[in-house]
Amino acid sequence: MMQGFVNQNCEAIIQVAVGHASKRKQMVKALIDTGFTGFLSLPQSIIASLGLPWHFRDVGTLGDGSEVIFEMYKASVIWDGQDRVIDVAASEADPLIGMSLLYGFKVEIEAVEGGIVAIKALK
Predict the structure, then answer these.
(1) Which of 10, 43, 30, 49 is nearest to 98 (CA)?
(2) How many angstroms separate the CA atoms of 88 and 75, rounded?
(3) Where residue 15 sits, what CATH number does that domain have?
(4) pLDDT (tens digit, 9 = 90+) per residue, 35-77?
(5) Number of structural domains in the chain
(6) What's the rounded Cα separation, in Å, for the pair 17 and 46?
(7) What's one GO BP annotation on this UniProt entry (predicted)?
């Protein structure tokens, strides 16, 4: 099980260890975004500091219906105690955890400031 918290803006936050497969991982605080279908988004500055390898370009649709092109990178994350290789979208927004990373997990949120966010594998 993984745990996080609800911040003062009523956003569900968890920390995830992210890095290049052959390098040390860095802890990143990320918002859970159920409208984001990808795995993880990170600002370019974090992607560069981690030395993540570029993978491909992808077209994404934003909440307002507009389409943008995302630069996609490969990263290794520790998720539920397991090392996973995932795609990371470069975005200048706050880091986001998307539904592809949450797939197969139950998310419980105590929707009050300081509330607990719990993510458990569905088995």
Answers:
(1) 30
(2) 7
(3) 2.40.70.10
(4) 888 999 999 999 999 999 888 788 877 777 778 888 999 999 9
(5) 1
(6) 12
(7) proteolysis
Please classify residue 107 by burial: count the beta carbons closer than 10 Å to its beta carbon, then call 0-12 exposed, 13-18 middle and 19+ buried. Answer: middle
Q: What's the token pair of residue 80?
A: 């539920």
* Helix or strand (DSSP H, E) at 100: helix 99-102
Encoding tokens for residue 88?
A: 């990371």
Retrieve residue 51's tokens: 């030395």
**Strand bridging mode 82-90 / 116-121:** unpaired
Q: What is the pLDDT of residues 12-41, one digit of tens each?
A: 999 999 998 777 899 999 999 998 889 999
* In the block, residue with structure tokens 């949450």: 102
pTM of the model: 0.88
What's the CA gap between 24 and 18, in Å, rounded? 8
Q: What is the DSSP string of 28-67?
A: EEEEE-TT--SSEEE-HHHHHHHTPPEEEEEEEE-TTS-E
How many CB atoms lie under 10 A from the CB of residue 76? 19
Owning domain of residue 35: 2-121
